[in-house]
Amino acid sequence: MTNFFVDDYEKMTRDDCIEALRVQFIWGTALDFTRDSNIILDNRDIFSMQFTSDIDGVPHKISNVGLLSEGKFWRFQINCASV
Question: Tens of pLDDT along 20-47?
Fold first, then answer.
């Protein structure tokens, strides 16, 4: 089974995104991006990465594509598939 999410809330600069992640780490709600992580693409218009995370005890490959506009993230597409 594959889950698909579209996230479209606000534009964020890279620094704003890093600050939001910092707060998530403080609260203990951040995902662990370090397991099997791979940066696929990082340029002016698009950022894409993959990592593995356990969901309900089952490993899943998380693919995340972020679109940028005016130097800010404005939309994310996230695919989650069990491995």
Answer: 878 888 888 777 788 899 999 999 899 9
Choose among 60, 80, 68: nearest CA to 16.
Answer: 68
User: Side chain identity at 74, as an amino acid letter?
Assistant: W
Helix (H) or strand (E) holding 4: strand 2-7
Whole-angstrom distance, CA of residue 26 vs CA of residue 60: 24
**Residue 73 and residue 65: Cα distance in Å, rounded?**
10
User: H or E stretch including 81?
Assistant: strand 72-82
Alpha carbon distance 76, 83 (integer Å): 22
Q: What is d(CA 70, CA 72) in angstroms, rounded to the nearest whole number?
A: 6
